[in-house]
Amino acid sequence: MIKDITIGQYIYKDSFVHKLDPRTKILISMFFMFGIFLINNITEYVYVLLLTAMTIYMSQIPLMKIIKGLKPILPLMILTVIMNAFFTSGTTLFSWAFIRITREGLYLAGFMGIRIFFLIIFTSLLTLTTSPITLTNGIEGLLTPLKKFKVPAHEIAMMMSIALRFIPTLIDETDKIMKAQKARGADFESGNIIKKTKSLVPILIPLFISAFTRADELAMAMEARGYRGDEGRTKFKELKYRLADKVILFLFAVLLVFLIIRKIAL
Amino acid sequence: MIKIIDLDHEYRKDNNTSIKTLNKVNIEIKKGEFVSIIGHNGSGKSTLAKHLNGLIIPQKGEVLIDDIKVSEDHNIWEIRRKVGMVFQNPDNQFVGGTIEEDMAFGLENIGFPSKDMMGRIEYAANKVGMGNFLKRPPHKLSGGQKQRSAIGSVLAMEPDYLVLDEPTSMLDPKGRKEVIEVLRELNKKDKMTIILITHFMDEVVYSDKVIVMDMGNIVLQGTPKEVFHNKEMLAQINLELPKAAILQELLKAKGINFKDEVLTKEDLVEEIWQLF
Amino acid sequence: MAVILENVYYKYDVDDNTSEEYGIFNISMKVEQGTTVGIIGKTGSGKSTLMQHLNALYLPQKGKLIVGDFVIDKKSKDLKNLRKKVGMVFQYPEDQLFEETIYNDLAFGPKNLGLSGDELNSAIKGAMEDMELDFEAMKDRSPYELSGGQKRKVAIASVLAMNPEILVLDEPTAGLDPKSKNDLLNLLISIKNKRNLTVFFVSHNMDDVFWLTEYVYVMCDGRIVLEGEVNEVFKENQTLKDLDLGVPFSVEVLEHLKNRGIYEGPLHPMRLESLAALIADILRGKND
After folding, report:
1. In a domain, C241, yes or no
2. Lower CB density within 10 Å: C or N end of chain A?
3. What is the value of pTM for the model shown?
4. Among A62, A176, A210, whose Cβ lies nearest the Cβ of C90?
5. Any domain includes C242
């Protein structure tokens, strides 16, 4: 289960999507996130679905991998749907005791579900097709203009890339520690919330300790390889917008502007 | 040449007690040598290693890398370019998300031109036999592959000296073998100076010089044969001989006289064959 | 406690490496009470998955395990009582320590299983004594202050404190220096005898496997590809090499001698003393 989380995992493929500039991918992911909330009819969601399907196809990432990535987020999706369905006022369709389901509630719930679904897929696609370092290079690139305002763009990017790099390692470690404590009779499933929270202590403490050890050793290894921050640093992969990037960014920007204007106009 | 002169190091455990981890250590390492430093955990060998590229600054005494003083702050970046360092835990020194990114990390730090990086990375990766895995992330590599990449990442920066702090202690026998073979090859073919810190006796038999440490002191120093000849001292500090040497001792006790002392099973079989 | 495995099958959901199958496939074993068996195989051969079935960290998707009186299959419940009987020492077990004192860490397992009072106390004391850790001097110390080797001992003691009847040791000496390694293995042998345990020993070191175990299972790609008495298995040096596994030092030496035409007998693994005697005999026989 814990190993199914796809956010932060990267799969190398030689695809069109992989080759896009990370800044393009980050920007269109953001455009997509905004856009998805500006859409509210089924036909347009079908277009979004087609767009998403096409992107997945072009990325060459196995569909199963993406679907599996949705699994851990499922509870969150269901919760959002239920909340929306129950707590939206409007024309009552069905009621039982204190539960009341409205037509508006159902609509909203459906749309929220669809939105979260697309959001997760698109963000997973971003990380699945962009290696951590490229991704952070992209973030750094986008943040660079802000350096003038003392935004530590490089440091933020470096921290993120290391965090991403260590996600799989820490997931493996959590898995191992969990098993070791289970083998010592630990029970993570039964009991009330307080008991369950308490049962996490034997996992969290070893995990923190190991994370600190790793951080310490990594810092030393980085220093040994001459790391001294931003100063005098070159880049392995220099970012460059190619024609494809420009076209895609333009199209998405136009689409977003259109959606925004429509929203305001209506 | 690396010169370590009267190097002392003390580490403060708490307010009242401090532990002496290095005690008047003197070592000379020539270019192109393969030097092994061996000793148990806590013998001071790792502390010593960390002095070699300024991760620890000498408290007393001096370390000279090609006559450049490690103790002077402004030399530190030059020294880190000259002396590459590989650590024990393969996971905790992997900065990049893939091998090529990790190899690029050091080059980026030293301001290496972007357009030449790929060439350098391919060269280094091929040296350690990882040329076909450049796009692999670390969690899809075996321990031995990770350590070889770590060596490659350091080689990409073209250091003059390569220091390895127990690079094999977390590997399985196959990974250990791979790493040691890479090191021997680098030393033989590229004349790379190698300083290998280890606690495995059978890894030091191929080196030009062995330095045995115990409680912060150098207790023995010389060629592997000279060092292993000193059996009482090794027994005293609880270091075991390589298996082939133990077997030869057992045979000697049975009245078999050998021409030469051996350290590897190949040499032992050769000796036996001569007697046969 | 005896252990029987009948066609145990567990397949992982495959992720991006679509071509490979991960898991264990139709594993059958029969291990008598009190024996020490070795499990060897390269990394990824399914050893760990198999071992984790022994105390139901994984439940078999097909087949079953019989551990003493317990039957484990895909529907098994009440796993705590089973886990009491099967102690698992994972690789780098010191990573699981989390309590402020050694005593409390050792108490974690037994307490989870419902032990308390004098019973708990004596279980902890017994485990520490068996691991040669001074109970009075060490029980209130923090496990984090200890050296690597000592931490490892505490972690193993924390498993022994549950008084298991079966002990699974997954590379218990990984990362230790040679002296600590030998000390720990000697200690584990004496504990095995004292507590009359059934031991599963997973290791990459063939000399250690030869030293500790009586019967060996060789795994590859989730299947048992070779099994037998330790002497018989290590005779198959070519098979073992093909599987990327080593052979004990003695077998390597004998093989070299055989290639030189000095030795003609079987490639049995043996202790260094016996090997020396054998070689001495060969040399004397020749010169007489």
Report:
1. no
2. C
3. 0.85
4. A176
5. no
